[in-house]
């Protein structure tokens, strides 16, 4: 699977997408992530890509021309299953959406910045608008990283243990059960006996009960969905 990310801050995307599972998935060819600087499509001699909003509000707006030309260029290279604009007023990102995106071949992510992008981009060029939650970030770059991370870790061959994505929190609308590792006692704090019992049926039953109880206590609305 391939992500292309259009941004005015390409450096911001370097580190988050070059560690751990995401790095391994990229190294193994399971996922490709290509970051493009929107300024490369600016026609301004100072590589400017923003301008004042019509109507005279505060802040700057990303111009339609560089974004249009960037998207048109990328779309001439391959078909994109989705062209996603990251914005706080988009559809809320979820595990379900991550699962759906993980089945796609090519996704183009356009990172919003400043006061946002000229609305004609949203009307004519993007297929989807996605937010990662009800708070405002300085730009869409961190949101794009969140989306890439959540999707790439689901790809077959992307994780060491291929079954572990299935037991994530949210994958079945339940929070994950508690986990422990050695030592079995530290500071007098003991790991639940059942986990040391070697009885897999009992352990699974305990994990399912804990997952349900934690969900009921911490996120009861998930049980209604
Ligand atoms: Cl996708 N962008 C920005 N700028 N802020 C956000 C967001 C996206 N999702 C939540 N807050």
Inertia-based shape = elongated
Average pLDDT works out at: 95
Enumerate the spans where pLDDT stays under 50 for 5 or more consecutive residues.
none
Helical/strand content category:
alpha/beta
User: What order do the helices and strands follow?
Assistant: EHEEEHEHEHEHEEHH
Provide the CATH top-level class of the largest domain: Alpha Beta
Count the helices. How many?
7
Distance between the termini: 30 Å
How much of the polypeptide forms β-strand, as a percent range? 15-25%
How many extended strands? 9
Characteristics:
Trp Operon Repressor, Chain A, Alpha/beta knot, alpha/beta, binds 6-chloroguanine, 5-stranded parallel sheet, elongated, about 220 residues
Short description:
This protein folds into two domains: 2-152, 3-Layer(aba) Sandwich (Alpha/beta knot); 171-224, Trp Operon Repressor, Chain A. Helices cover 31% and strands 18% of the residues. The chain is built from seven helices and nine strands.
Plain-language structure description:
This protein has helices at 20-27, 64-77, 95-101, 119-124, 141-152, 193-196, 200-218, and strands spanning 2-7, 32-37, 50-51, 61-62, 82-92, 106-111, 128-131, 185-186, 189-190. The chain folds into two domains: 2-152, 3-Layer(aba) Sandwich (Alpha/beta knot); 171-224, Trp Operon Repressor, Chain A, CATH 1.10.1270.20. It starts with a strand and ends in a 7-residue tail after the last helix. The protein has seven helices and nine strands, in the order βαβββαβαβαβαββαα. The structure holds 6-chloroguanine. The site of 6-chloroguanine has 14 residues, from strand 5.
